[in-house]
Design goal:
This is Outer membrane lipoprotein-sorting protein. This protein has 307 residues and is α+β, with helices and mostly antiparallel strands. The chain contains two helices and 15 strands. A 15-stranded mixed beta sheet has the order 7-8-9-10-11-12-13-1-2-3-4-5-6-14-15, with helices on one face. The termini are far apart. 27% of the residues are buried.
C-alpha cells in the first residue's frame, strides 16, 4: 500500500513538473511571437521628419548633474540607410549608405566612422526606433547591442523569454538578451506591451543581470497612430541613481513614410551655411585628414584650402 502510494506520488510530481515545463515552453513561444510583433510595429516606420523637444539631465560629476533643454531635429530614411540627427546649437550625426559622421557642437570638424565601427561615448548615433532600450545620443553604451535598430532587432529576436504574464490590459515580458562579448552577464529587461496598439512598448525597465528585482533604468512612452503607423509621441527615462541620466521629451511628427530628398543627407548639412570644417578619420590611432567641407559658397581655392 505504501509502495503504491509512493509510486502514485512520484507520478503526480512528474506530471506536475512536465505540465509546468510545457506551460513555460508555451509562454516562451507566445512571448517570442509578441516580440516579433513588437519589432514589426517599430519596423513600420520607413521614413519621416520629426522634432524632439523637452529636457534631459546629464551627470557632470560623481555628485553633480545639470538639466539641459532638448531641441533635436531628425530626418529619417531607413530604407536607404540614411539618417540625420541635429541638436540645435549642439552636436550632429549623419548616417549614409557608406559612413557614419559626427560633428561636435562647434561644427568646425567632422569625424567619419566606418559603418561597422562602434563609436565611443559622446559620439554615438541615434536611432529613434531603439528608444526604451537605448537612452539616446551621447549616452553611456550600457548595452551597445541596442545602439541601432538592426542590432536591437537581431538581439530581441534571439532573446530568452523568461516569463510572460498579463497585467490588466498589458502583456509583460521578462527578457534576457544574448550576452555581449566580454560581458559578465546577459542584459535583462522587463517590458510592458499594449496588444491593442500592435504591441507598442508602454514601459521598459532595465534589470540587473544578477538580480531581477534590481531596476537599473525605467523608460515610459506614449504612442499615436499616424498614416497607419504607431509612432512614439512622448518619452521619459530615468535611473534610480542620484545625479544620473533622465529625460522628458515630446516628439512631433511632420512627415511619416513620405519621400526623402537625397540632398537632405549630404555631409555638408552638418556645417552651418557660410562655414568651413575639417573632415577627418582615425586609423590605428592616427589622425587622418580627409579634406575640407566648405559651405561658404566661395570659389574653389579662394580660402587657400583644398576642395
Amino acid at each position: 500500500m505504501i509502495s503504491n502510494y509512493s509510486r502514485l506520488w512520484r507520478l503526480f510530481v512528474v506530471l506536475l513538473t512536465l505540465g509546468s515545463a510545457i506551460g513555460q515552453g508555451r509562454a516562451a513561444e507566445n512571448g517570442q511571437e509578441i516580440l516579433r510583433k513588437m519589432i514589426e510595429t517599430r519596423t513600420a516606420l520607413v521614413s519621416g521628419i520629426c522634432e524632439i523637444r523637452g529636457s534631459r539631465t546629464v551627470r557632470t560629476g560623481r555628485d553633480a548633474s545639470v538639466q539641459e533643454e532638448v531641441k533635436y531635429d531628425l530626418r529619417l530614411d531607413f530604407a536607404s540607410g540614411r539618417t540625420l540627427f541635429e541638436q540645435i546649437d549642439g552636436v550632429a550625426f549623419l548616417t549614409t549608405e557608406d559612413y557614419r559622421y559626427y560633428a561636435p557642437s562647434s561644427r568646425i570638424e567632422v569625424r567619419r566612422y566606418e559603418l561597422t565601427e562602434l563609436p565611443v561615448t559622446g559620439t554615438s548615433p541615434f536611432d529613434i526606433r531603439t528608444l526604451g532600450f537605448y537612452f539616446g545620443p551621447g549616452q553611456y553604451l550600457r548595452i551597445p547591442e541596442c545602439i541601432d535598430f538592426p542590432r536591437m532587432r537581431e538581439n530581441m529576436l534571439q532573446a530568452n523569454v523568461v516569463k510572460s504574464a498579463q497585467e490588466g490590459a498589458l502583456t509583460v515580458l521578462h527578457l534576457e538578451l544574448p550576452k555581449p562579448p566580454g560581458a559578465v552577464g546577459h542584459p535583462r529587461y522587463v517590458v510592458w506591451l499594449d496588444p491593442a496598439k500592435d504591441y507598442v512598448t508602454v514601459k521598459v525597465e532595465g534589470r540587473s543581470f544578477a538580480d531581477w528585482d534590481q531596476v537599473l533604468s525605467t523608460s515610459e512612452m506614449e504612442w499615436e497612430q499616424i498614416n497607419g503607423v504607431w509612432l512614439m509621441t512622448s518619452y521619459s527615462a530615468s535611473t534610480p541613481r542620484e545625479h544620473d541620466f533622465a529625460a522628458d521629451w515630446k516628439i512631433a511628427w511632420k512627415s511619416v513614410n513620405g519621400p526623402m530628398p537625397r540632398d537632405d543627407f549630404r555631409v555638408e548639412r552638418l556645417i552651418p551655411p557660410g562655414r568651413i570644417a575639417v573632415e577627418y578619420t582615425r586609423k590605428d590611432g592616427e589622425h587622418i585628414e580627409l579634406g575640407i567641407i566648405d559651405t561658404s559658397g566661395r570659389p574653389a581655392g579662394a580660402l587657400g584650402l583644398p576642395r
